[in-house]
Amino acid sequence: MSRAQIDQVSILACLTGLVLTAAWFIAFAVTGTAPESLAMLASAVGGFELFHFGQGLWFGRARRRTGGR
Question: Where are the transmembrane segments (predicted)?
Answer without folding.
Answer: 12-32, 38-59
